[in-house]
TrEMBL record:
Spans traversing the lipid bilayer: none
Protein name: Glycosyltransferase
Keyword annotations from UniProtKB, A to Z: Glycosyltransferase, Transferase
Pfam family, one: EryCIII-like_C
Residue stretches making up the Erythromycin biosynthesis protein CIII-like C-terminal domain: 239-377
Species of origin: Streptomyces narbonensis
Location of the Erythromycin biosynthesis protein CIII-like N-terminal domain: 23-219
PANTHER family, A to Z: STEROL 3-BETA-GLUCOSYLTRANSFERASE (PTHR48050), STEROL 3-BETA-GLUCOSYLTRANSFERASE UGT80A2 (PTHR48050:SF13)
SUPFAM superfamilies: UDP-Glycosyltransferase/glycogen phosphorylase (SSF53756)
Length: 383
C-alpha cells in the first residue's frame, strides 16, 4: 500500500502526522509526505521520506491572495479569524494541487492522509478516486476554518462537481476524552505520540536536576527575527529567575545563541521537547498544538498564553480541567507571568490534573492500531 501524507506547511502540522506515517512504514507500507521546500529538512529529520510541491513558505498565504495582492489585516474576532485561517490554508492547498496531482501520476498512492486543515488532501483523493483520511494534528476543532476553506476553494470544488469539501472516509482525533467538545464530529480516537525532530542528547536533557525546571517556549515558530518573541522570552526569564527555578528554552540555534548571551544561566538550544517535557515541572507556551500535546502527554502543568483568538478554546478547556492557567496576550506582562508560574509551582493540583490527562492519552489506541483500518480502506477501494 502506498500512502500520501499531506501536512499543512509548518513544523507542528508535520509533527502531528509523523507517528501514523511511521506506523505504516513499520508495517511494510510505502509512505511519502508532501509539503513545501521549507519543510523538507523537518520531514526528513523525523525519518519520513518527503517531497516538495511548492517553494513558497506558509507566510506567503497569510499575507498574499491568489492574485498576488497583499491581504488586509487578520480579523481580531474569533469567527473572522477562523474563517481567514481556513481561507489561507485552503489557498495554500489550491496552490499545491497541480504538483500533487502530477506527482500522483508516477507514484499512484492508494490512500491520502491529510491533517486537520490540509484542505488539498480531500481534493487530491477526489481527483484520484481513492480513500481520504483526515487526522487531527492538535486538540482544536476546525469547523469554522472549514467554512472559510470552502469559500476559498469554490473553483476547485466546482471543477469536481462538489458543493462542499468531501467528507473523509475515516476521521482520526487525538483529543483526550475529558477535553473533547460535544460538537466534534464522530471519529476514531488515537493516542498522540511526539513526532518532532531529534538531536544528539546531553544527560541533563533527560534527567531532573536539583531545582524545579520551567520550560519556556514559543515552539517551532520562534526566531530572532520575530523581535517581540525574543523580547518576551528575555523578560519572562528575568522575572521567573527569582523563583529559584532552572529555565530551559527549546529554540532554533540562531535564536538560542542570542538567548544564551542575554539570559544568565539559561539552557537554550534545539532540545527535543518530547525528551525534555517529562523532566519539567511546568511548561510556559503559546498554545501551539504540538507543544500543548507534548505537555499533556508528559503530564506536565502548563501556563498557556494563546497568541491568537483561534487558539483560545483548547487552552481554555485545559485550564477548565485544572491542568493549566491561561493568560491573554494583553495581560501577559512579565510580572503577571511570574505570578502565574509561582502559583502553578506552588499548587500540586495542576500537575495532578495534568497527569490524569496523560493517563487518558496513554489509554487510547496507538497509531499502529490504526494500520489495519487504513489497509481495509485501501483494499475496499481496490476491490
Amino acid at each position: 500500500m502506498k500512502v500520501l501524507f499531506i501536512p499543512g506547511g509548518s513544523a507542528a502540522t508535520v509533527f502531528g502526522l509523523v507517528p501514523l506515517a511511521h506506523a505504516l512504514r513499520g508495517a511494510g507500507h510505502e509512505v511519502i509526505m508532501a509539503s513545501n521546500e521549507e519543510m523538507m529538512p523537518v520531514i526528513t529529520g523525523t525519518g519520513i521520506p518527503g517531497t516538495a510541491v511548492s517553494s513558497r513558505d506558509i507566510w506567503h498565504y497569510v499575507t498574499t491572495d491568489r492574485e498576488g495582492n497583499r491581504k488586509e489585516e487578520t480579523p481580531l474576532d474569533l469567527e473572522g479569524q477562523a474563517l481567514s485561517t481556513g481561507r489561507w490554508f485552503a489557498q495554500m492547498g489550491a496552490d499545491w494541487l497541480p504538483a500533487l496531482l502530477d506527482m500522483a501520476k508516477g507514484w499512484t498512492p492508494d490512500l491520502v492522509v491529510g491533517g486537520s486543515m490540509s484542505y488539498v488532501a480531500p481534493l487530491v483523493a477526489a481527483h484520484l478516486d481513492i480513500p481520504y483520511v483526515r487526522q487531527a494534528w492538535d486538540i482544536d476543532d476546525s469547523n469554522i476554518q472549514d467554512r472559510g476553506a470552502e469559500l476559498e476553494l469554490r473553483p476547485e470544488l466546482d471543477a469536481l462537481g462538489l458543493d462542499r469539501l468531501p467528507e473523509p472516509d475515516l476521521r482520526i482525533e487525538l483529543c483526550p476524552p475529558s477535553l473533547t467538545p460535544p460538537e466534534v464530529a464522530p471519529a476514531e480516537l488515537m493516542r498522540w505520540l511526539p513526532g518532532n525532530v531529534q538531536s544528539a542528547l546531553e544527560p541533563w536533557m533527560f534527567t531532573k536536576g536539583e531545582r524545579r525546571r520551567v520550560c519556556v517556549t514559543s515552539g517551532s515558530r520562534a526566531s530572532k527575527e520575530r523581535e517581540h518573541t525574543f523580547e518576551f522570552l528575555q523578560a519572562v526569564a528575568r522575572n521567573i529567575a527569582p523563583l529559584g527555578v532552572e529555565i530551559v528554552m527549546p529554540a532554533p540555534e540562531k535564536l538560542a545563541v542570542e538567548l544564551r548571551k542575554v539570559i544568565p544561566g539559561v539552557r537554550a538550544g534545539w532540545i527535543p521537547l518530547d525528551v525534555l517535557a517529562p523532566t519539567c515541572d511546568l511548561i510556559v507556551q503559546h498554545s501551539g498544538g504540538a507543544t500543548t500535546l507534548t505537555a499533556l502527554n508528559a503530564g506536565v502543568a502548563q501556563l498557556i498564553i494563546p497568541e491568537a483568538v483561534v487558539f483560545e478554546a483548547p487552552a481554555r478547556r485545559i485550564a477548565d480541567y485544572g491542568a493549566a492557567l491561561t493568560l491573554q496576550p494583553a495581560e501577559a506582562t512579565p510580572e503577571r507571568v511570574a505570578s502565574a508560574v509561582a502559583e502553578l509551582l506552588a499548587d500540586p493540583s495542576y500537575t495532578e490534573r495534568a497527569q490524569e490527562l496523560a493517563q487518558q492519552i496513554a489509554a487510547l489506541p496507538l497509531p499502529s492500531d490504526m494500520v489495519g483500518r487504513l489497509e481495509k480502506l485501501a483494499a475496499r477501494n481496490q476491490g
